[in-house]
Predict the structure.
Amino acid sequence: MKVKTFMSIKQKNSDDFRYYVDNLLFNHDIELLSQFVKDMSFEKRKDFALFTEEDFKGKTDFSLNIDVENEKQNEGQIVTSLNVNLEAKINKKTAFILEMTYCGLFKLPDVPEMILVKQVQVECPRMLFPYIRRIISQTMIESGMPNVDIKNINFFDLYKSNIKNQAQ
C-alpha cells in the first residue's frame, strides 16, 4: 500500500511547505471592538468639476498609499490606524485627492510576542481594509466621480517585505 505524504523529499517542496507555514495567519480570537473614521478629506479639483465618464476612461493614473500605525491602549488592546492617500491624475493634472485615517480598536489574545506582531501588522489592517474600500467607493459615487476599483491588499506580503527591508 502506497501512502502519499504532504511533504516531498525534494528541497523545493520543503521550501514551499515552510512558506505555507510562515503564511499561516494567527488570528485566533482577535476582537474588533470598534471602528471609525478619525479624519477624512476629499478634494475634487475645479478643472474636473464637470465631466463625462469617457473623460476618465483609460486616461487616469491612480496612486494609492496606505500607512499602518499602531498605538497601544489598555492591557491587551491596540488601535490600528490606516492612513490612506488616494490621488488621481489625468494628463498629469490632479483630478482629486482623498485622504482618510480609518481606525479600529482591537482586543488581542494572550499569545507569544512573535504571533502578536503578525496579528497587529497583518490581521488588524486586513480586517479594516474592506471598510476602507467601501467608504472610498461611496465617496467617489457621491462626488460624481467614477468609482475606483481598489483590489485587495496582501498585508502579509507587505509585512514580509518590511521585514526583509529592515534586515538589509
Q: What stands out?
A: The beta strands are 31-44, 60-72, 77-90, 93-107. Residues 24-157 form a domain with the Bacterial Protein-export protein SecB fold (CATH 3.10.420.10). The first strand starts at residue 31 and ends at 44. DSSP finds three helices and four strands in the chain.
